[in-house]
Design a protein that fits this description.
heterodimer, A: about 600 residues, 8-stranded antiparallel β-sheet, 13 helices, B: alpha/beta, TIM Barrel, 3-stranded antiparallel β-sheet, about 40% helix, globular, protein biosynthesis (chain A), EF-4 (chain A), G_TR_CS (chain A), T_Tr_GTP-bd_dom (chain A), EC 3.6.5.n1 (chain A)
Chain lengths: ~600, ~375
């Protein structure tokens, strides 16, 4: 237990766009307060996963406890909560923010406010945070602090007159940030004698300790030996250890109101710990849980298949290991005629999907094929049932479906004026509905409702390309709506290729079907027979390409001395056919489908 | 008893051609007597194992066998006639290059008993001859052909086409000039890049490109048309002959008959008395081959009986190259009794027939149509089990 009363605790988060210097500032704060020695300091301490550090993305919420002697002569405990920075983890972000009373809003003084920053600021405002604007990279010649201050006021509506100009990189004025945390952010409130009520902020699997749970105590206390109960599931555990991060894990006697720390309780998998859940005392439980709990639900699904069919078991084991530490990730076995045995996997969003794929490749050495991502559709059956559709291949006979609903998002796009036209065209092409269009200096902020389906296709790439990389984009889920959706099936030699079928709005079906047919035409090698490649809605062909038969393939010279070699070559070719997929009398190398799917990504 | 064809390999060349991946070697000096003795010794060894069998043909290949002493050819022909029951019109072919030196010795080879000459002309275009690394020019080629025609009852020559940048019109013109030189047999090969050759290196470096796909197919069809005008029929993928002028020796390979191969790197297929079919080949390096023959009487490095499916595959991959196709009964017999329907994928066979690549003749032979032959390398792995 800390010897410092709640009045001298400050819990804060840092909100920033990627590359605006959140991690660098965190490093400086840790350094200045002496939480780590120079030797222990490595760049961006908080982003501990290799992948996180490399991509500059925080995936798991993390925390560090700093001791700071302020100018008033008192010692304060400052708990820095590092939050995941991406929309895919929006719920995790909101839980991290709910563990704090205030935020630092870090804005790059030359780049200005980005879409992602906005989304997170709104989360912080919703969480009732006091927000201190910080202008970073003030040392750069391109810095325009006055313009950016004005932008913060206009776009976000925050008073930026006392924004703190700093350079996290050089350390310039970082001391002022520490002082502002103490003077401008409120201390936590809570009742130490009330029944225990702690917010489960995040959890992860540690090979030695089992599941480590990051908590914020609201009321009461958490201590070793205590029987705790998860209020959403009713599961009961005995606390083995409580502690704080300095950022090293240090065990303490107990955690009291306002404190952020960890507990371990012989919990087997992170799936048993739900982010946002309330932890209470089993014998003296709180009457009401903390507000805002919701289980994490995947919004994007795709099939993952091993390139080498022999890796299937390894993939199964790897997914299980991954799931140990990522409860938001879902998977179930799936079979595809084109790709063999694999898994249908659910993700919080596209970045989450990408991160999981990369981790499987990097940490487990697996070469994977991913099918095109699909959103979760809601099917209203004619018999009144409502079911979810995760895989276009599972789409039932449309005559039994009364209506299909698809998920929508509300997207915020900030883009320099020059590219606005192109961005609006793109949004309109993707069935976007404009909600708002405002200007901030020379930049436009467009708010659109878009079907998520249109975004998972290739929206990011197109947005990047039409704005030359200057557009920034963020979104929140925005409900379901009925839509004229069809399943497009891709047929090779008259037979459907399950892995390539997709759902599309009727107006986009032909264009996308044709694109895939054209791609396959280039990818599938010519064979003895000509191969029709078709896209179809039900029985109606909407696009067609034909791969002509190969023109010539015969050895010019073959005499008595060549026969053994020729036979062995033939036997090798027959062996190679085992990696082919049969479509009637033609055999398509699996690599062609893999390449088609890769081009999609 | 299965009749035999006899192949004798002379492994030396004056220079290595950039497209050639045959077992050929360039030596400053060749000990003619030593290699003559070794070839005779290895032939005697095989003759003793094989016994007196009907002999259909004898073929001196290489390398450049026209660089061997004519008396070597004479001695080997005499040995072969003594060891086997030679057909009265035994076909004896010699491969030769049209350089002036070799042309000067053609009479001596005729004297030795050679009755069919196969000349490595390769092209009648000077630029193409230089590209192909040949040591003769077009005039020498024509002179050699004229000299050969006067000396040998039967004459064939080789041309290489589908060369980089070659147009259909220029190939037709060149081929017409060649056909007018009045051979009754031509081997017309599309240039292919073989691994390990100098062309393979140059091609990989992108220094030249070959006609491919539709273009190569067009050149192939043009070749058939031109040859047909002169009465030459494509009896095999790359071989064209007037009726009766087909190479009996090469037909023996394509019909998957027995053949004996003597000399460095030579391959053979021989039926044993118990019905097993033995595949054997010899050491490729000339000096090592000669040393082993001197020591053991032969330089076989591997000899194995072939399994029925292997035999059926070999019989089909060779036989479907021929316009006459294959007789299923013969395939069954040559594969040691494996039923024909077990050797091929019958559903695929039906599809290939429907597509017009294969056909049954009235006499019950399975043939690859011209369009099928053009795609034989893709067709075989689909067809064969």
């Amino acid at each position: 237990m800390t010897d410092i009363p709640p009045a001298r605790i400050r819990n804060f988060a840092i909100i920033a766009h990627i590359d605006h210097g959140k991690s660098t500032l965190a490093d400086r704060l840790i350094q200045l307060t002496g939480a780590l020695s120079e030797r222990e300091m490595k760049e961006q301490v908080l982003d501990s996963m290799e992948l996180e550090r490399e991509r500059g993305i925080t995936i798991k919420a993390q925390t560090v406890r700093l001791r700071y002697r302020a100018k008033d002569g008192q010692e304060y405990v400052l708990n820095l909560m590092d939050t995941p920075g991406h929309v895919d983890f929006a719920y995790e972000v909101s839980r991290s923010l709910a563990a704090c009373e205030g935020s630092l809003l870090v804005v790059d003084a030359s780049q200005g406010v980005e879409a992602q920053t906005l989304a997170n600021v709104y989360h912080a405002i919703e969480a009732g945070h006091e927000i201190v604007p910080v202008l970073n990279k003030i040392d750069l010649p391109a810095a325009e602090p006055e313009r950016v201050k004005q932008q913060i006021e206009e776009v976000i509506g925050l008073d930026a007159s006392e924004a703190i100009p700093i350079s996290a990189k050089t350390g310039l004025n970082v001391e002022a940030v520490l002082e502002a945390i103490v003077t401008r952010l409120p201390p936590p409130r809570g009742d130490a004698e009330a029944p225990t009520k702690a917010l489960l902020v995040d959890s992860w699997y540690d090979p030695y300790l089992g599941v480590v749970v990051l908590v914020r105590v609201k009321d009461g206390r958490l201590r070793k030996g205590q029987r705790i109960r998860m209020m959403s599931t009713g599961a009961v555990h005995t606390v083995e250890q409580v502690g704080v991060f300095t950022p090293k894990m240090v065990a303490v006697e107990e955690l009291g109101p306002g404190e952020i720390g960890y507990l371990t309780a012989a919990i087997k998998t992170v799936a048993d710990t739900k982010v946002g859940d309330t932890i209470t005392d089993d014998r003296n439980p709180a009457a009401e849980p903390l507000p805002g709990f919701k289980p994490s639900v995947p919004v994007v699904w795709c099939g993952l298949y091993p390139v080498d069919a022999d890796d299937f078991e390894k993939l199964r084991d790897s997914l299980a290991k991954l799931r140990l530490n990522d409860a938001a990730f879902h998977y179930e076995p799936e079979t595809s005629a084109a790709l063999g045995l694999g898994f249908r996997c659910g993700f919080l969003g596209l970045l989450h999907l990408e991160i999981v794929q990369e981790r499987l490749a990097r940490e487990f050495g697996l070469e994977l094929i991913a099918t095109a991502p699909s959103v979760v559709y809601r099917l209203r059956w004619t018999d009144g049932r409502v079911t979810e559709l995760h895989n276009p291949a599972d789409m039932p006979d449309p005559t039994r479906i009364a209506a299909i609903e698809e998920p929508w998002i509300k997207a915020t796009i900030l883009v320099p004026d020059d590219y606005l036209g192109a961005v609006l065209t793109l949004c309109n092409e993707r069935r976007g509905q404009q909600v708002e269009l405002t200007y901030v200096g020379s930049r436009a902020m467009a708010v659109y409702r878009l079907p998520l389906n249109e975004v998972v296709f290739d929206f990011y790439d197109r947005l990047k390309s039409v704005s030359r990389g200057y557009a920034s984009f963020d979104y929140v889920m925005d409900g379901y709506a009925e839509s004229d959706l069809v399943k497009v099936t891709i047929l090779v030699n008259g037979e459907p290729v399950d892995a390539l079928s997709f759902m599309a709005h009727r107006s986009a079906a032909e264009r996308r079907g044709r694109a895939i047919c054209e791609k396959l035409k280039d990818l599938i090698p010519r064979q003895l027979f000509k191969i029709p490649i078709q896209a179809a809605i039900g029985g109606r062909i909407i696009a067609r390409e034909t791969i002509p038969a190969l023109a010539k393939d015969v050895t010019a010279k073959c005499y008595g001395g060549d026969i053994t070699r020729k036979r062995k070559l033939l036997e090798k070719q027959k062996e190679g056919k085992k990696r082919m997929r049969q479509f009637g009398k033609v055999e398509i190398p699996q690599s062609a489908f893999i390449a088609a799917l890769k081009m999609d990504a | 008893m299965e009749p035999l064809a006899l192949y004798i390999h002379w492994p030396f060349c004056a220079a290595k051609c950039p497209y050639c991946d045959f077992n050929s070697h360039v030596r400053e000096r060749v000990d003619q007597a030593r290699f003559r003795a070794a070839l005779r010794r290895e032939l005697a060894f095989e003759a003793a194992r094989t016994g007196r069998r009907p002999l259909l043909s004898l073929f001196f290949g290489g390398g450049t066998p026209s660089l061997m002493e004519p008396e070597t050819a004479a001695a080997l022909i005499e040995d072969a006639r003594a060891a086997f029951d030679a057909a009265p019109d035994l076909e004896i072919t010699l491969e030769a290059n049209p350089t002036s030196v070799e042309t000067g010795r053609l009479a001596a080879f005729r004297e030795a008993g050679v009755n069919r000459l196969s000349l490595g002309v390769q092209s009648l275009e000077e630029e193409a001859l230089r590209f192909l690394g040949r040591r003769h020019d077009a005039a020498q080629a024509v002179a050699a052909l004229e000299a050969a025609r006067a000396l040998f009852p039967r004459l064939s020559f080789d041309l290489i086409y589908a060369r980089p940048g070659q147009t259909e019109a220029s190939w037709r013109a060149e081929l017409r000039r060649a056909l007018a030189l009045a051979a009754d047999h031509l081997s017309l090969y599309q240039l292919t890049i073989e691994p390990g050759t100098r062309f393979a290196t140059l091609h990989a470096r992108g220094e030249f490109a070959l006609p491919e796909g539709e273009e190569a197919a067009r050149l192939y069809r043009a070749t058939e048309e031109e040859a047909a005008r002169f009465g030459l029929r494509p009896y095999e993928v790359s071989n064209y002959a007037k009726p009766g002028a087909e190479s009996r020796h090469n037909l023996q390979y394509w019909r998957y008959g027995d053949y004996l191969g003597i000399g460095p790197g030579a391959h053979q297929r021989l039926t044993r008395e118990d019905g097993a079919l033995l595949a054997a080949h010899r050491h490729r390096a000339p000096e090592e081959w000669a040393a082993r023959v001197a020591r053991d009487g032969h330089a076989i490095v591997e000899e194995t009986p072939l399994a029925p499916t292997e035999r059926a595959r070999e019989a089909l991959l060779m036989g479907l190259r021929l316009a006459e196709g294959v007789d299923p009964a013969r395939i069954e017999a040559r594969s040691g009794g494996l039923p024909f329907v077990a050797a091929v994928d019958t559903a695929m066979l039906a599809a290939l027939i429907e597509e017009g690549y294969l056909a049954w003749t009235a006499a019950g032979r399975l043939v690859a149509t011209p369009e099928g032959r053009l795609r034989l390398d893709a067709l075989l792995p689909a067809l064969l089990r």
